[in-house]
Amino acid sequence: MSRASRNFLPGRIWHITHRCHKKEYLLKFRRDKLLWIYWTLQAKIRYGLIVLNFMITSNHIHLLAMAHRDGQQAIPRALQLMESRVAQAYNERKNRRGAFWEDRYHATAIECGSQFVNCLIYIDMNMVRAGVVGHPREWPYCGYDELMRVRVRRRGQLVDTGPLMELMGAKDVHSLHTMRSEWIALAIRKGQLQREPIWTESVAVGSEEYLRQIRSELGGKMKMAEMAPLGEASAQSVLRRTRGVYLCTLKGKNDDLGPKKQG
Question: What angle do CA 40, 46, 52 make, to 5 degrees?
Answer without folding.
Answer: 45
